[in-house]
Design goal:
Number of helices: 2
Subcellular location: Cell membrane
Keywords: Cell membrane, Disulfide bond, Glycoprotein, Immunity, Membrane, Signal, Transmembrane, Transmembrane helix
Helix content: 10-25%
Main location: membrane
Number of domains: 2
Order of helices and strands: HEEEEEEEEEEEEEEEEEEEH
Oligomer: single chain
Strand content: 35-45%
CATH topology of the largest domain: Immunoglobulin-like
CATH superfamily of the largest domain: Immunoglobulins
CATH architecture of the largest domain: Sandwich
GO cellular component, one term: plasma membrane
CATH class of the largest domain: Mainly Beta
Largest sheet: 6 strands, mixed
GO biological process, one term: response to bacterium
Length: 277
């Protein structure tokens, strides 16, 4: 998992050079061991002549998963088995993987174009979670669960790597990295927003606390922020913090309410004074 995520971060930078006039990040897809999933590649009409799917695993060269032209795709060895399937629509190509295994953990690229110009359309890093590995002595706690921030204000999120056993504190002391991801709308994949962190902000007896400070400018900064901590070659995910823009406090209703209450009191006093007179 550690090697795979390292390749993911490295290729996030490479993709900015090879893809596009508008730089795009490599997205992250997390699957459970044994899941079925489908990766999507949007294709414009002028790019639909030649098409390729590639797999890039850390430490290996690119492997061609499938190739074809004008909608006719052929799976290449060793992907030409029942677990892999290529389908296409009017504007998309789909790569389906059944019964996902740890060996499928890699970065997947799609490429389209003509004989003269080929472009990488997008890339997705597939991380595979194995619940058999979850019975470990470390776990991640992310706080807060929800954060409401006014536009232009900053927020601080925390991600703690906690040890269930005191003696585990000394294990892998120099092999911890934290990565922060943000998912926007429900149909978007998380994208890496922060990766350059290799040490704790706060070190306690059985925990290591990482912090992310960010200024929320507008609605594009809202969404769910996730942390992923790598320790001892394993990746542990936080449960996420939902960030939304809070409404600014408007004192007008309070002032109007106070004036109304004052008017009622004054009227009551005047009526009481008149009755006594």
């Amino acid at each position: 998992m550690f090697a795979g995520l390292a390749a993911f971060i490295l290729l996030s930078t490479a993709s900015l050079i090879q893809t596009a006039e508008v730089p795009q990040q490599i997205s992250l897809t997390v699957a459970e061991l044994g899941d079925n999933l489908t990766l999507t590649c949007p294709i414009f009409e002028e790019e639909a002549g030649l098409f390729y799917w590639y797999e890039l695993s850390f430490g290996y060269m690119f492997q061609t998963i499938a190739m074809g032209s004008f909608g006719k795709m052929t799976l290449k060895t060793p992907f030409n088995d029942s677990r892999f399937k290529i389908t296409s629509g009017n504007t998309h190509y789909f790569l389906s993987i059944r019964n996902v295994s740890k060996e499928d953990e890699a970065t997947y690229f799609c490429q389209a174009g003509s004989a003269y110009v080929m472009n990488f359309i997008n890339g997705t890093h597939l991380a595979v979670k194995d619940h058999r590995e979850q019975q470990k002595s470390f776990y991640v706690k992310q706080i807060p669960k929800m954060e409401s921030v006014q536009s232009g204000k900053s927020m601080t999120l925390q991600c703690s790597l906690l040890s269930k056993k005191k003696e585990n504190r000394a294990q892998c002391p120099d092999q911890r990295n934290v990565y922060w991801f943000k998912a926007g709308s429900a149909d978007s994949h998380p994208g890496v927003i922060y990766t350059d962190k290799t040490s704790c902000d706060e070190q306690e007896e059985r925990s290591c606390v990482y912090s992310l400070s960010k200024t929320i400018q507008d609605s594009s900064d809202t969404g769910t922020y996730y942390c992923a901590v790598i320790s001892c070659g394993q990746i542990l995910f936080g449960e996420g913090t939902k960030v939304e823009i809070g409404k600014e406090w408007d004192p007008l209703p309070l002032v109007l309410g106070a004036l109304l209450a004052l008017c009622i009191i004054v009227i009551a006093v005047l009526i009481f004074s008149r009755d006594r007179g």
